Amino acid sequence: MSVISFEIVYRGIYQKTLANKISRTLVLAAVKEGKQGISFGRYSDSPERNGIPAKLFGYIADNSEELQAVAAKYEPKQVDVSICVDDTMCKGVESWAWYGLQPITAVTKPGGTLIVTSNYKTDDLVKHIHRRGTPYKLAIVPGGASMAGLWVYKNDGTDARVLGAALKAEPSICSMASLEQAIRENIGGDAHIEAARASFEDTRSDEVKPGQGNTEVPFTFQLLKWTEMREGVVIDGVGGHNNYRDLEGGYEPGRNEVFKKWSTRTMRPVVAFDKCTKCTLCWIACPDTVFDVTPDGYFDANMEACCGCGVCEAICPVSDCITMVNEVVFEDRGSQYLMWKKDAQAYQGYLTDKRKKGKVEKRFPITGLAAAFSGAGLDGGHNLNSAKAKSVKDFK
Amino acid sequence: MATAAQQAGVGVQLLTGSEVMANVVRLADVDVITAYPIRPYDTVMQYVSRFISNGEFDADYIPAESEHGQFEIVKHACACGARVFTGSSGVGWLYAMEPLAVTAGLRLPMVALVGCRALDDPGAFGTEHNDAMLVRDLGWLITFPDAAQEVVELGLLAYRVAEDPKVFLPCAIAMDGAFLTHSQATVRLPSQEQVKKFLPPYNRGDMLLHPDNPITIAPQANEDWLMEVRRQSSEAAKRAYTVLKDAHKDFCRIFGESTNPFLDEYMTEDADVVLCGLGTLSLPVKVAIREMRKEGKKVGLVRLKWFRPFPTEELRASLSRFKAVGVVDRDYSFGSPFHGGILLNEVKAALYGLDKQPRVKGFVCGLGGREVLLENVKHMADEILAIAKSGKADTQVEWIGVRG
User: Fold this and answer.
1) Chain A contact present for B186, CB below 8 A
2) What kind of architecture, by CATH, is found in domain A231-256+267-373?
3) What ipTM was estimated for this complex?
């Protein structure tokens, strides 16, 4: 029995078409060689909202009986290849389906491969990925998170390059010739095929050893029995009018301890408290009530709750006070305010460093999604570091 | 690469159940389509509109203002002689309940996709069959495909049977949300020529609403008339059975697929017990059966392809061969005779009065889109095997895969 399984972890909703193209093409390439395949999404993810981590899965089997045997188990418990098309999700994913935080390698087989599209290096990503007891391989496809779009598919070649890397990771899926044919039929012409080939040749993977990586224990929760749940679909409020952290005074709203949503975030606000005029606009405008009020009247963006939409930055009237910075450059979710209070000078250094490494430039005001279309910051695919990288226009 | 192996992929497409339905709509050359989004039905809207915008298919495509309007528009188009397609899911389907009832009452052969979805609140979109089942008493034909490939057969049969003048009843194609509407599987589509051979043009005959054929449809009719109208509908629903049987023969002749019009029997020849259910349940059940057979457990599956017309005779003949039957409902019927599901009640009713009756036990599982896992199926099958062994009746309905 030989069955190959894979998953594609992507951000809803603007990476949905990208993920679908990758999944379909991989299965169809194998079908060309007489294999059987199925491609399906985690349905609970499907009311996709902007930025929500979502998953697609695929099985490839030698015959239909083998395929049914695995498909009857639905969501794979283990996959040969995990593909992550936005490196910020290396911090873990919390799906709309509310399963707690899943490490990005939650279902990657021991010895399996995690492919990530990223402009960062292996070590930069491994420190975000939750450590585990078994080894896995990490392969990076150069480029940021492709915002290939949903209705309009801005094809930047990410699909083809990921496919090349996937075949490298699991050569038994099909021959390169079959993959090329499937790419031609489902994605695009020579530029894509060339990109897939280059990616197949260039992609290297590093082994990540057991115990290596992020030491944080991902948050989980216990689903209740039907006898324990309140009737009438009533849910208790989280309540709470709390002081700020352990201090006297201030205000911290009650928050759901097990549904945090921060894995939706691709960028986070950093606040220059020295410049803050306490105008309250960020606090009022934030759609997720992310800002905790400190006893001395500052507003501290709580990184357990922030989805990274960028509304605060857009509405802040003081220049360079709130800045959105790529999530990958952070390794913690601690309080910026407390860091600043402890050592204002050190905090200034932190601020400068983070902005330098990952400031998200040129966004349209208000919507986080705008970053996707402005060709800056998160905009991937286009900023390929690979020697054989192609510009977007080559894929037209 | 071997040529033969490559050939295996020729003509095979990777399609979701919704996508296959859109292809059936295209191949059936439907005239008028209305749409109003609700998932999981809405996927078919996207595929149909893509065909139209790509110039691969010509039809009037009308996005409506609500499900009520959506079903009203096609209902009227259908009266005017148009072959129609529409659909909905869950509470969207229920919002159209008035036109749904009237369409059957007026004997209009509308074909609709029900992307089966839980009736929320609480907000939910996983599959449950209660939405489709809510039209079961109204004259609607209801079919439950189990896989993308079967949508070809049941979709085409839906048009053929619904539009048969002996029937003229609407047909709901009830697809399990996600498991069928959203999963991409390899499918072979028939050719346009084959479909043309199978599906004659929709001819409303002298019931056509047209200026050249002055008629009135649905005037006020109270106690003096309505019982006779209902009796006509009942006869039409009865005739659907025979029409479907004949149409299925034709289907096999032209497409060379499918074996039994009403039932999908799997490993039943020597089975002691069977599980009985609808839709995509067949996947985990068939796989579990294969595994249980290795342990010497003689379990089979009897799946109903059609819920309306209900295959009473076939089911009586089939199920009376077994010692015990487990009826698996992906729906609920709260407060009903054994507090189980709709299928259980209907199967029990169908079997009542037989000289040789199997023991029947009901299960409720897979609600709200919860996966029916192999271990769930094996547990149900073991329960039924135990009943077969003891011969004792067990009217307790068991909930499978519920926490607690």
Assistant:
1) yes
2) 2-Layer Sandwich (3.30)
3) 0.89
